[in-house]
Specification:
By secondary structure, the protein is α/β, with parallel strands linked by helices. The protein has helices at residues 4-23, 40-71, 128-137, 145-152, 166-169, 176-179, 197-205, 230-246, 274-277, 288-296; strands spanning 37-38, 87-94, 106-110, 121-124, 141-143, 161-164, 208-212, 218-225, 257-264, 270-272. A hairpin with a 5-residue loop joins strand 9 and strand 10.
Length: 298
């Protein structure tokens, strides 16, 4: 972190980028408009401000509808109230190619403040005592081979995550083509196949964030709700990015994390400066003032 040569190089690259943006005041097919980049803390504030603007419009619309209802003699209490807590999502472009060996990434991480989402868990187990324990732990759907038969016949999948006991795991191969593409197939690597079915169900309901690379090597995940506020979202981002850095695949070559965007359910994305969100950087999650002070000392 205190290596003068590395800090000097980073400072040189930052100044070169700023100078390039100032000199190139034209737009062409080869030189498009550069996408603004923001420090991770600033990006979180921008996302939350964007959500707040939409919340204000929703309140105005609700008041307008209530006024129209009052003029027509309609009871305003019967109107549908628009209460929507938007999710805060992260999109990451990686240098991974899932088609090559040792370059796929899949796992889960427990966020300090959870995701804020209500999760419906399905538990696959044959033992009646384990089924009772899964229901008591909060599983929405519980069943054994009968549940597998229903899914194979085209039953609606009314659950978001699935767990299973080892004795029934082999039977899940019959519905692997249905559950697999949807990310609902229990796997030992993810910790969703375990003899302690009640404990696994509790873990799934306690705020685990799942992540996996798609066909292009990108990662998308929900890191909380807008109601969490800035500090809780930053805590979740820190833990999530540190998890990705710790689980870096052995076959990764070149740049591991290329671009990161923060967005909300109905909002636009804000590009984040990589030094402020990459755990391998000396400027990871530090304040912008501290970052400027560190650069000025070189």
């Amino acid at each position: 972190m205190n290596n003068p040569s590395i800090i000097s190089l980073i400072r040189h690259l930052v100044h070169a980028q700023r100078a390039d943006q100032q000199l190139r005041n034209y737009v062409s097919r080869a030189h498009g408009v550069p996408i603004p980049q923001h420090h991770v803390r600033e990006a979180v504030k921008l996302v939350l401000n964007d959500v707040a603007l939409r919340d204000g419009k929703r309140v105005q619309n609700a008041e307008r509808k209530a006024g129209v209802a009052a003029e027509k003699g309609i009871d305003a209490s019967v109107l549908k109230k628009d209460k929507f807590d938007e999710s805060i999502d992260i999109a990451i472009e990686t240098g991974l190619d899932p088609r090559k060996p040792n370059q796929s990434l899949r796992g889960s991480v427990r966020l300090p403040h959870g995701t804020g989402k209500k999760v419906r868990v399905a538990a696959f187990c044959n033992d009646e005592d384990q089924q009772a324990a899964a229901r008591e732990a909060g599983a929405s759907i519980v069943g054994g081979t009968d549940l597998i038969d229903d899914i194979s016949k085209g039953a609606v999948l009314n659950f978001d995550r699935a767990v299973a006991t080892p004795d029934i795991a082999s039977s899940l191969g019959r519905v692997a083509r249905i559950l697999g593409p949807r990310g609902l197939l229990p796997a030992a690597k993810l910790g969703t196949i375990n003899q302690d079915i009640a404990g696994v169900v509790s873990n799934q309901l306690s705020g685990l964030a799942h992540y996996r690379t798609d066909k292009k090597g990108d990662i998308h995940a929900c890191l909380g709700k807008a109601s969490f506020g800035e500090m809780k979202l930053l805590d979740n981002i820190r833990v999530f990015m540190q998890e990705l850095n710790d689980e870096k695949p052995e076959g990764s070559k070149g740049y591991y994390l290329k671009q990161v965007y923060l967005t909300s359910t109905q909002g636009k994305g804000f590009k984040v400066t990589m030094p402020s969100i990459d755990p391998s950087s000396s400027f990871f999650m530090i304040d912008e003032v501290d970052e400027e002070n560190l650069l000025s000392k070189t």
